[in-house]
Design goal:
There is one protein chain. The protein is mostly helical. It has four domains: 5-60, no CATH class; 94-175; 185-293; 320-484, Orthogonal Bundle (hpI Integrase, Chain A). Helices cover 54% and strands 4% of the residues. The strands form four sheets. A three-stranded antiparallel beta sheet has the order 7-8-9, with no helix packed on it. Strands 1-2 form a two-stranded antiparallel ribbon. Strands 3-4 form a two-stranded antiparallel sheet. A hairpin with a 6-residue loop joins strand 1 (5-6) and strand 2. Helix 4 packs parallel to helix 6, helix 10 (202-224) runs antiparallel to helix 11 (232-252) and helix 15 (337-349) packs parallel to helix 19 (436-450). The N and C termini lie far apart (107 Å). The structure holds zinc ion (ZN) (3 copies).
C-alpha cells in the first residue's frame, strides 16, 4: 500500500513519481506555458504560425458571405434556421408548435392527458410563435413537477408564468371543466370592498362590515330569484361613502358608536360635497334604517335629512353641423370599419359602450337586418349605412380567423373570448374629436325631446328616472351653465 502524493492544484493523487501534479493539471500547466503575447493585441494566447492569436486572425480576415439556402417555403435565398426554411417561414410554420409539443411530450413521460388538447386549443388562437411560447412555459413547469395539477398551474406566480400563458391555461382548464371559472372583475370588486372596510376606524367598522354582509346576501338572493342586482360599482360606492362619513365623524369629535351620531353630524358631512347630496342622503337613510332594525341606534338620525336634487344632465350634445360631418365620415367606405360601426351605432341608435362592445355575431339577424343589443327588449333595425359598416366589420373579423364571438375584436382580444376593453371605443373615435358617449347622449336627448321619454325608455330598455335627465330643460340648463362658466 503506497501513499500517493496529492496534486498541487487539486486534491487528486499523483501517480508518477517525477511529477508534482496529477495528469490533468499537468497537461493544463504544460499547455498554458506555451502561450505567448500576440503581436497584434498583446494578450497572452496560443499563437498561430504568423504570431497572431486566432481572434486577431478572424478580425482581420475578409468577411465570408453568409451561408444561404433556397427556402423550402418562400423560395428566396435566405439563411437556413432549420427544416430547410428561412427564419420568417420557420416562425410562421403552422406545424412547428405541434413538432415542439411532441418533442416536449417525449421528455415528460408521461405527458398529462390534457397536453394534446392544450396544444390544439392554443394553436387555434395564437400564431405559431405565441403558441410555442405558451407551450414552452407550461412544459418547463411540467418537467420540473410532473404531478402538478391544473389548479396549481393556474395559481402560479407571475415569475413562473407570464400573464398570457396564465390566461390561456385558465381559459383552457375552465373550458374543459378541469378548473372552476374565476372572475377577475369580481375578485377586483371584492378587493376594493375589503380595502374600504379596512379603512373604516375601529369603533364604527363592525356595523359597516355587517351592513356589507347584509347587502351582499341580499344581492345573492336577488340573483337566485332572477331579479335585477346592483352593480359592483354601486356596492363599492356605498362603502366608500360610509368610509368617508366615518373618517369625517372621527375627525370632528370622539365617537364610540353609531348611536352617538346626530343629524347635525350628517348635515356637516353632506355640506362637504353638495353635488353628491342626493346619493349620500339616500345611502344614509338606508344604512340607519338597517342599523335601527338591528337595534344599533335607537333613533334614526338620517330621517330628518332632505334628499338633494337628482343629478342633472352633465354630458355634451353635438351641434347639428357636427353630427352631419361625423355621419358623412362614417358613411364612407374608406373610414376604418370599427370606427364606422361604433360611431353610427352610438350616433344613430344611441348604443352604449357596453351594448356595442358586447355585440356578438350571433346577435346579428341577416334576414331582418337587425341586431340584438344587450338589455334592449326588441331587436334594433339597422339603417343601410350602419348595416354596411357592420358587414365591413364582419368581413375583417372573418379574415383574422378569430374564435372570439364578438363583432368588435381587437388585436388583444383576438385570442380570447372577452369583449374589447372599455376604453377601446373612445380611443377609436378620438381622431374625430368626439366620444361614443357624446354621440349617444346627443341621440338620447333628441329621442326624449322629439318623441316621448316613456316610449324612448321602453324602446332602449332604460328606466324612466334615468332618461328624464335628457329632457330639454335639464340639457338647456346644463349647457347654458357650461357656457357661462367658460366664456370662449
Ligand atoms: Zn490536479
Ligand atoms: Zn491577438
Ligand atoms: Zn422562407
Amino acid at each position: 500500500m503506497s501513499r500517493l502524493r496529492i496534486c498541487l492544484d487539486c486534491s487528486s493523487p499523483v501517480r508518477l513519481r517525477t511529477r508534482q501534479r496529477c495528469h490533468r493539471c499537468h497537461r493544463r500547466t504544460e499547455r498554458a506555458a506555451l502561450q505567448r503575447p500576440c503581436t497584434r493585441c498583446a494578450r497572452l494566447r496560443h499563437l498561430l504560425p504568423d504570431d497572431r492569436c486566432a481572434a486577431c486572425r478572424r478580425a482581420t480576415a475578409p468577411r465570408k458571405p453568409p451561408k444561404t439556402i433556397r427556402c423550402g417555403s418562400c423560395g428566396e435565398q435566405r439563411r437556413n434556421v432549420g427544416h430547410g426554411l428561412c427564419n420568417r417561414c420557420h416562425q410562421a410554420d403552422t406545424d412547428r408548435p405541434f413538432r415542439y409539443a411532441a418533442s416536449l411530450a417525449r421528455r415528460m413521460q408521461p405527458a398529462p392527458a390534457w397536453w394534446n388538447p392544450l396544444v390544439e386549443f392554443t394553436a387555434a388562437r395564437f400564431h405559431p410563435g405565441g403558441t410555442v411560447a405558451v407551450l414552452r412555459e407550461t412544459g418547463r413547469l411540467l418537467l420540473a413537477a410532473p404531478s402538478v395539477t391544473p389548479h396549481q398551474l393556474s395559481q402560479q406566480s407571475p415569475a413562473q408564468l407570464s400573464a398570457t400563458t396564465n390566461r390561456v391555461l385558465t381559459a383552457f382548464f375552465t373550458d374543459r371543466g378541469l378548473a372552476l371559472p374565476h372572475d377577475d372583475a369580481q375578485q377586483r370588486a371584492t378587493a376594493r370592498r375589503r380595502s374600504y372596510l379596512t379603512a373604516i376606524p375601529e369603533p364604527l367598522s363592525k356595523a359597516v362590515t355587517e351592513f356589507n354582509q347584509t347587502q351582499m346576501s341580499e344581492q345573492e338572493r336577488r340573483r337566485r330569484t332572477g331579479r335585477r342586482t346592483l352593480s359592483d360599482i354601486t356596492l363599492g360606492t356605498r362603502l366608500r361613502i360610509l368610509r368617508d362619513l366615518t373618517v369625517h365623524l372621527l375627525a370632528r369629535r370622539q365617537v364610540t358608536g353609531w348611536a352617538e351620531v346626530t343629524t347635525t353630524d350628517l348635515e356637516s358631512f353632506l355640506a362637504c360635497t353638495p353635488a353628491d347630496r342626493h346619493q349620500q342622503t339616500y345611502l344614509m337613510r338606508r344604512f340607519f334604517a338597517w342599523a335601527r332594525s338591528r337595534k344599533l341606534v335607537l333613533t334614526d338620525p338620517a330621517r330628518g335629512l332632505a334628499l338633494g336634487a337628482q343629478p342633472a344632465f352633465t354630458g355634451v350634445v353635438l351641434e347639428l353641423a357636427e353630427q352631419r360631418k361625423l355621419f358623412a365620415r362614417w358613411a364612407r367606405d374608406t373610414t376604418p370599419a370599427h370606427e364606422r360601426l361604433v360611431g353610427l351605432l352610438a350616433l344613430l341608435h344611441a348604443g352604449s359602450n357596453a351594448e356595442i362592445r358586447s355585440l356578438t355575431v350571433a346577435d346579428v339577424d341577416a334576414v331582418r337586418r337587425t341586431v340584438t343589443l344587450i338589455g334592449r327588449p326588441f331587436p334594433t333595425p339597422l339603417d343601410p349605412p350602419t348595416w354596411a359598416a357592420l358587414q365591413a366589420c364582419l368581413l375583417n373579423r372573418g379574415a383574422t380567423g378569430t374564435l372570439n364571438p364578438h363583432v368588435i375584436v381587437t388585436r388583444v382580444t383576438s385570442s380570447r373570448t372577452t369583449p374589447a376593453h372599455t376604453s377601446y371605443l373612445a380611443r377609436l373615435l378620438a381622431a374625430t374629436g368626439t366620444t361614443p358617449a357624446a354621440c349617444r347622449q346627443t341621440r338620447l336627448t333628441e329621442l326624449v325631446n322629439d318623441l316621448d321619454p316613456k316610449l324612448t325608455a321602453a324602446a332602449l330598455g332604460m328606466n324612466g328616472t334615468g332618461i328624464t335627465r335628457y329632457a330639454a330643460d335639464n340639457v338647456n340648463r346644463d349647457r347654458l351653465q357650461r357656457r357661462v362658466a367658460s366664456p370662449s
